[in-house]
Design a protein that fits this description.
about 25% strand, 7 strands, about 35% helix, alpha+beta, binds coenzyme A
Length: about 220
Amino acid sequence: MADIPKTRIAVSEHEQERLRKFVRQAGWMNGRIAGARVARVEDAEALAGLLAHESIGPRIYTMPNPINAETMTTFIADHLAQRERGEGILFVSFNATGEATAYFDVELWPQWSMAKFGGAVKAERQGRGFGGACGLAAVEWCFDQLGVARICETTARDNDRSIRLLSRLGFRQMGEVISQRPDGSTRPSVYWEMERQDRYAARSAKHAGAAGPDPDSPSFA
Ligand SMILES: CC(C)(COP(=O)(O)OP(=O)(O)OC[C@H]1O[C@@H](n2cnc3c(N)ncnc32)[C@H](O)[C@@H]1OP(=O)(O)O)[C@@H](O)C(=O)NCCC(=O)NCCS
């Protein structure tokens, strides 16, 4: 794993325990993406169906290779163990026919009140604003529900959609890091952070009618 997060500001034991407790009891994402729930081991095949696509799995460095029901079973079980420790969580949303349409996972460093999230939307739904909506839901979950002070992110240098999405959401680039895949290989990544207080300041400015990009309006086509 790359040496992240870059910003490390210690928080009290009490706050760390509050964050862990929140993760342990969270079952649904709620908020903007109300249908996303914590992934269960029996979701492995549906999750593999979402992630095995060439436009998804290879772009996410935390994914195992290959992606199939067996590796997804391990992936989900690992996230359930992280949830038990209060240090990570994996949400999945489904359509009416039971296909997984999006996932969102969070890695939490309670000692620094820092979360890192990853996510993807079904290949057929990409480029139509759905990811923008999911990204916003992810930010809101981390800041408004979980209540961390900061979120960090990493993206591949050539992941234009992700880069645009994070910029629009208000993340700031802070150089690059080397990300390590589960098989030990590495990938250079653009590193990003966003502070809760900056997000709230942007929202207040929006409500006061300030000009500039609207972080709360992902474009839907
Ligand atoms: C990254 C991902 C979640 C974005 O979701 P999406 O639904 O495809 O993206 P959106 O339609 O919401 O668009 C996001 C931004 O990319 C832009 N965009 C869309 N298609 C694009 C393209 N082909 N090239 C460049 N930019 C593009 C949009 O205009 C939008 O930018 P804007 O907010 O400034 O207008 C989705 O593409 C995905 O799951 N990708 C595979 C997995 C992945 O890369 N995950 C992120 C790892 S960090």
